[in-house]
Amino acid sequence: MKSYSNIKGPSNIQEPGKVEDEFASAELIKGFLSSRNPRPPCIPKEIGFQDIAQNWELTAPFSGCKIQVPTKFVVGDLDLTYHVPGIKEYIHNGGFKKEVPNLQEVVVMEGVAHFINQEKPDETSAHIYEFIQKF
């Protein structure tokens, strides 16, 4: 992965509330939902995309590792990532279960996109609470 900046992390230059103010913009949300650019539009340009190269390097030893803890996966039916070609089949036809052997449940919440905890906080919390009650 290529790094586009020499800055070592977003937190060292981010002003409190700056990203939140930008997120409030309808144009930003429209861009987020329709962009084909791999750079997330919510990250200020001065921050760059620098952590991806470092994260790639730091997580390389875990490549191929399976998630071994009990897991409940919740996704919104309007989440664009859920509609990437092949993703639904991967999630629902056993591919995801191979990577997450203790996957106990997949929930597709209706009428929500990527930020399920903000769009339907009560329903999201209920799913989390129901899951942790098993332990």
> How would you state the average pLDDT, rounded?
79
Shape field: globular
Instruction: Please summarize the sheet with the most strands.
Output: 2 strands, parallel
Please give the radius of gyration in angstroms: 17 Å
Report, as a whole number of angstroms, the end-to-end distance. Answer: 39 Å
User: What's the domain count?
Assistant: 2
Beta-strand content estimate: 5-15%
Unreliable runs, pLDDT <50, ≥5 residues?
1-13
The residue fraction in helices comes out at: 25-40%
Annotation field: number of helices? 7
Order of helices and strands: HHHEHHEHH
* Strand arrangement, major sheet: 1-2
Structural class: alpha+beta
Strand elements, count: 2
Topology:
Layout: H1 18-23, H2 26-34, H3 51-59, E1 71-76, H4 87-92, H5 95-99, E2 103-109, H6 116-119, H7 121-132
Parallel strand pairs: 1-2
Family: Belongs to the AB hydrolase superfamily. Epoxide hydrolase family.
GO molecular function: hydrolase activity
Keywords: Hydrolase
Brief descriptors of the model:
alpha+beta; Epox_hydrolase-like; 2 strands; AB_hydrolase_fold; 7 helices; disordered N terminus; 135 residues; hydrolase; hydrolase activity; single chain
